[in-house]
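pasting for the record
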Amino acid sequence: MAARGAPVKPPPIVQRLPLTQARINLGALLKRVHLNKEYVILEKDGIPIAGVMDVHEFEDYLELRDPKVREHIRKSNQEYLAGKSRPAEEFLQELRQGARRRTKRRGRT
C-alpha cells in the first residue's frame, strides 16, 4: 500500500521472450532490463525457463532471503505496530542538530 500522497508505481513490465530471440538481441535486452526496470521471462519451446531482472533488484531479493535480515524486518515491523516509531522529519532534524554540534566542536581547537 502506498503512503498517503506518494505516487503510485505502475505495475512492472513483464515480457515473455523465446530464448533464441533473446540470444540474438541480448545487449539491447539487458539494457532495457537495467534502464527501464523491466522483467523478462525467457522461454524454450514455449516453456518458461529463466527470468531476467536488474542486478540491484536481484541483490535486494537475495538479501531478503537472509534469515538475519528477515528477523530484523520482523522485529522492526512489530515495533512500528506497537507505536515505537516517530515521523522521519523529526528524526532527520535530530540528526542535523547532532551534526551541527559536532561541526562546532571541531571548529574549536
